[in-house]
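debug: dumping io for the single-chain case to check the tokenizer round-trip. Nothing else runs in this session.
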Amino acid sequence: MAKVKAYTIKGIIQPDFTLPKEFGEKVNASLIAQALRVFEARGHTGLSKVKTRAEINRTKKKLYKQKGTGGARHGSRRAPIFVGGGIAHGPKVEERELSLPKRLRVASRNSVLSLKAGLGEVVTASGLEKVIKTKDILPLLKVVGNKRCTFLLSDKSVGAKRALKNLDNADVIFYKSANALDLFRGGVLILDGNLFETKKVEVKAKPATKKVRKATKK
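debug: decoded output
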């Protein structure tokens, strides 16, 4: 299992943190490239459009006679060569239908996490749920190096999102909703210390059976 540096929000060094198994998988470069292509394409709405010469609201009358003027032969001011005319070879509305199945989305995400962990671009920070103002996180950023970073929050640190969004050169995303593109371009990944806490399982006592009850009465 990969180990990463751990800090508090005050920049105090803690014992190294052992990451879960999704950070130790084999890096699949081709799958990462495929995922980045899909998520980048889905990030564009594809609604850009320009008018062609057929859609311009201008007269179709010929500018001047074909011969005898000494000028070029033009048929209409709608031509792209004129100011206010149509646009040639401009963008058109297109629907982007690229997608990845869930299995590949999860695999590409884990592959990027493993890549980041191998490059030393993953740290953990405890106490993010206590962040109220932006200045509360500045000591941690000085220790990390004031590089581009992405905070991956847990559900317990919802209140810190507003303060962290004021930081320059930093993104704030919930860990469960981050995709491969967010992680790949995120710089240093700062993981919320509450992400991998083990949940305590309460063992409930089983009710006594009828045979036991009869025995106790005797």
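debug: round-trip ok. The helical segments are 29-42, 102-118, 138-144, 161-164, 180-184, 210-217.
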